[in-house]
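Duplicate of #3305? Posting structure anyway:
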């Protein structure tokens, strides 16, 4: 039930982005920068060590296809980063060809949404099959991922305008719940979970660098550093 509640919270995040639109520019930059700081802290304090643990799982697995790869998890993370980077480059080229305030082409929009829907579904799945069953760890994971999804959601809304508000956010909210439902209904091997998590870790790292490390002209350094420092302390102490 706790994991279901966490999934519902993450799904609800996709309907909160509109609240940022009503804030003045300075307040909005502070919130987004603080959220970016929290997510960066999560990547370096929790995600990278988790990637190392996934590497240990793969190194000890008897799976012929991976035997010749010395750094399985890290190569999968690199593959995930490159896939998301390629997708973002394609989206950006499409956006550059459109006049300002014009909605994206439907095919490009749904490709973008489909990639983030898979991303969200994995987060929902991990809510069930997370590394530690401790309730407090679930709380901190939900906070970090909620802020991460908030920044992603803001970027997607800026990219796709009304089309995202009408359809995209519903798809992404539903995908978190679909991932949670799959997690409760299925049990996959530790190797498969480690491989999938490593692939998506690359995507998370790219999104942190692309969206959550704020650009100089759109950032609030104090909020960013404060968010990163506060959450790093939480992860190290708790």
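Output from current build:
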């Amino acid at each position: 039930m706790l994991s279901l509640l966490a999934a519902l919270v993450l799904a609800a995040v996709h309907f909160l982005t509109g609240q940022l639109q009503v804030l003045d520019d300075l307040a909005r930059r502070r919130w987004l920068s603080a959220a970016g700081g929290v997510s960066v802290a999560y990547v370096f304090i929790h995600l990278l060590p988790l990637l190392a643990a996934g590497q240990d799982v793969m190194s000890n697995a008897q799976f012929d296809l991976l035997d010749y790869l010395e750094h399985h998890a890290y190569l999968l993370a690199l593959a995930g980063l490159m896939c998301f980077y390629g997708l973002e480059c394609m989206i950006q080229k499409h956006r550059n060809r459109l006049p300002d305030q014009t909605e994206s082409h439907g095919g490009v929009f749904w490709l973008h949404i489909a990639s983030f829907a898979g991303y969200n579904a994995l987060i929902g799945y991990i809510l069930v099959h997370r590394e530690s069953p401790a309730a407090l760890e679930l709380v901190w994971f939900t906070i970090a991922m909620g802020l991460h999804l908030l920044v992603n959601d803001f970027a997607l809304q800026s990219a796709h305008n009304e089309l995202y508000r009408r359809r995209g956010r519903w798809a992404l909210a539903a995908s978190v719940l679909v991932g949670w439902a799959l997690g409760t209904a299925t049990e996959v091997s530790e190797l498969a979970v480690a491989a999938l998590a490593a692939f998506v870790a690359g995507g998370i790292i790219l999104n942190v660098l692309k969206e959550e490390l704020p650009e100089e002209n759109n950032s609030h350094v104090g909020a960013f550093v404060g968010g990163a420092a506060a959450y790093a302390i939480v992860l190290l102490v708790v």
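Confirmed duplicate; merging threads. DSSP finds nine helices and no strands in the chain. The two ends are 22 Å apart (CA to CA).
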